[in-house]
Specification:
This protein has helices at 12-29, 35-45, 80-89, 95-98, and strands at residues 55-56, 68-69. It is mainly alpha-helical and 130 residues long. It has a domain at 12-98. The chain starts with 11 loop residues before the first helix and ends in a 32-residue tail after the last helix.
């Protein structure tokens, strides 16, 4: 139309609301999804335009290892339909496995904290099975 103005809008600022909307649709389809499930589904369902150079994430079995990524597009272009379809049938629910809740017993510090250049050190051990 005469007098209309168009602007180029791209990058993270443009992608965030789109991806957020797709994530909301995924969670509507499957409310049991955790944040890691949403991330993995988005990565698995993304499209990869042939005109770009794609690399393989070399991380073996963590951080979506083995997935294709591009320096400008990340894991690819969001495919809302594919993401929602995959979310609807998703049964892995890895988020709960990756979240660890732990507690520690409280203790009272029985030493004065020195002023100036003095120091006080307290050590603790985290069990390797945590």
């Amino acid at each position: 139309e005469p007098g209309s103005a168009y602007a180029n809008f791209d990058g993270t600022s443009a992608a965030a609301p789109v991806v957020s909307g797709v994530a909301a649709l995924m969670l509507e389809a499957n409310p049991l999804l955790g944040y890691r499930d949403v991330q993995e589904i988005l990565a698995l369902s993304a499209t990869h335009p042939d005109s770009l150079t794609w690399k393989t994430n070399a991380a073996n079995n963590w951080n979506l290892g083995g997935m294709l990524f591009n320096d400008q597009l990340g894991f690819g272009l969001v495919d809302a339909y594919a993401a929602v379809q995959l979310a609807d049938t998703w049964t892995q629910h890895d988020s709960a496995i990756n979240e660890v809740v732990s507690s520690a017993r409280a203790y009272n510090l029985q030493a004065a904290i020195p002023d100036g250049t003095g120091a006080y050190t307290r050590t603790f051990r985290i069990d390797s099975t945590l």
